[in-house]
Amino acid sequence: MVRNLRKAAALLPALLLLNASPAFADKDLDELRGPGLGSEWRLIKNDTRKNIKAWDKRDDDKKYRSFKLDLIIDAPLEAVARAYTDIDYYPRWFWEVQESRVLKKVSDTEFYYYVVHRAPVGLPPRDAIIHAKIEPWTKAKGYALFILEAKPAYLPPRDGHVRMNAEDMVIKWTPQPDGTTREEVEGYIDPGGSVPVWAINAVQRQAPYYTVMGLQRVVQTERFKNPKDPMPFKVRE
Asked: Mind naming one GO cellular-component term on file for this protein (predicted)?
């Protein structure tokens, strides 16, 4: 079922850009094309079965919509953090990632990585260089942060790819008494290049949700439930 949903979701960008999808009524397309939103968060999905809520909003100083998620992951903090820092494994679960690798490890709480996202039919793939920082869990705080910021100028442009201007997120992990982890995400993505704003906004309403669905699935695999290697980065003080 999840595999079918992911396949269907992967087709959405192409269908939107080809104006071939009947999934949106005219009023929905009007909203996606225009500002339509205030600067307040608007709930766009409440999946009670998977414990995922998603919001979006349109800030006046940004070209595209920002997104926010709140979910429960049936795994401890260490498994969740390991999935996010296992960059080479992203193509197995992260939204439309076809290539990913660590570029530089600065410390046990800081690194840079490279990622390539598939683009809709007829468009070049998008790549990004991300500066990642971890603020480890402490007893006083009760949570850890994973802070991601795109650094477009970190590497020269790659032939056949469009460099993303932003793939920025702040991810908050709060361990729960029952052994699960609450994840809260706020983010903003600017794919660069020339793509209709309404199409990008439509995709950004789907991509974060399907990404965390993939996360909920992958943390249940042996790779993250019973890892053989030590944590590559520090997530607890």
From this structure: cytoplasm
